[in-house]
Amino acid sequence: MKIKIVRKEGEKIIELPEGARASDIFGKLGESSETYIIKRASDIIIGEEPLSDGDELELIKIISGG
Amino acid sequence: MNCDKCQNPAVAHLRYSDIRLCKNHFIGLTTDRIRKTINKNKFFERGDRVAVAVSGGKDSIVTLRELHDISKKRGIEIVGVTIDEGIADYRPESIDIAERTYKELGVDYTILTYKDRVGKPLDKIMEKPDISRACEYCGVFRRRLIEDGAREMGADKIATGHNLDDEAQSIFMNYIRSDFPRIARSGPKTANKEGFIPRVKPLCNIPEKEVGLYAILKGYEIHEDECPNAANAFRLNIRDHMNLIEDKYPGFKFGIYNSAENLRNILADVNIEKNTLKKCENCGQNTSGKICKFCELKAYANKE
Questions:
Q1: How many interface pairs between A and B have CB atoms less than 8 angstroms apart?
Q2: What is the ipTM of this complex?
Q3: DSSP sequence for chain B
Q4: Which of B52, B165, B277, B297 would be B286's cystine partner, CB 3.0–4.6 Å?
Q5: Confidence (pTM)
Q6: Which of the two residues, B267 and B32, has the higher pLDDT score?
Q7: Measured between CB atoms, does A66 come within 8 Å of chain B?
Q8: Which pLDDT value is given to residue B31?
């Protein structure tokens, strides 16, 4: 299935197998799940949430330091 | 997925303890944990004036707002200290957020600049061809200016926004350097030592991601850009690796944090400080040598 990823730096479509969960996007992106909060349709969701084809996920980066 | 405590949608999965929480239960648990840290470590006494070091980022804004929330009941007074390092396109926006938050809460504050206190803004210091690691200078300067600002505000304690990730990274870096005295000195609350204002870290056992989520769910205005000088920092490499390990082994960061707690208990009866503190010949602050690190780096930064 196709999942649209929206981040501050741009958008990207990734392919995941049927039955994938939200946390599976991080393996595809080569990032840690510790770094982002995931939103779907403006709701915050957890990594265990099942995904559906065509889902659009917004990733909010957690900034260190400052 | 729903909350383990009610049927509302989960917004957080605390994988290290395998708990899913909705917005209200996550906020409630996080607030409780911060307050338990404050109580367990006896951070404050009635009448304390507490200077919160506020950059405008998530950690310091959460710390400021949480301490302000409990200040009346605890009989403590909150003031703010903000440091302007002089990093164009980065710091001005975060200082605006810090100032808006101070004003909203009615908190007195001071802003100290590197330009005034060090002699140059950080951007100018970084123009020197032989200075490449901004954090080495910035960390020392910022730490001193927070101490100076707190003292000028008449503070008894300094509260900083260090979270679990910051603590785990520092502990790990100190292990690598075999700097056990530093591990012994650190922790949620620094010992009362002559010449230093004690420091407390109310968020020390809250993972960074949870601090960020808490700030978002509470609707706090926070600065969301990363320091442009941070990319090459050793700490950031440690952070990235720790995050990948935490993905595979939830609880890894707590393991590092707890190892230092245990080590501190073992070292409590051992005097591992090699050097007794002296006074810096230049500024009079505590130091292990003749000249303190702040004065040494300040002189170098201003050398033409």
A1: 80
A2: 0.95
A3: -B-SSSSSBP-EEETTTTEEE-HHHHHHHHHHHHHHHHHHTT---TT-EEEEE--SSHHHHHHHHHHHHHHHHHT-EEEEEEEE---TTTHHHHHHHHHHHHHHHT-EEEEEEHHHHTSS-HHHHTTSTT---HHHHHHHHHHHHHHHHHHHTT-SEEE----HHHHHHHHHHHHHTT-HHHHHH-SSB----TTS--EE-TTTTS-HHHHHHHHHHHT--------TTGGG-HHHHHHHHHHHHHHHSTTHHHHHHHHHHHHHHHHTTS----S--EE-TTT--EESSSS-HHHHHHHHHH--
A4: B277
A5: 0.94
A6: B32
A7: yes
A8: 98
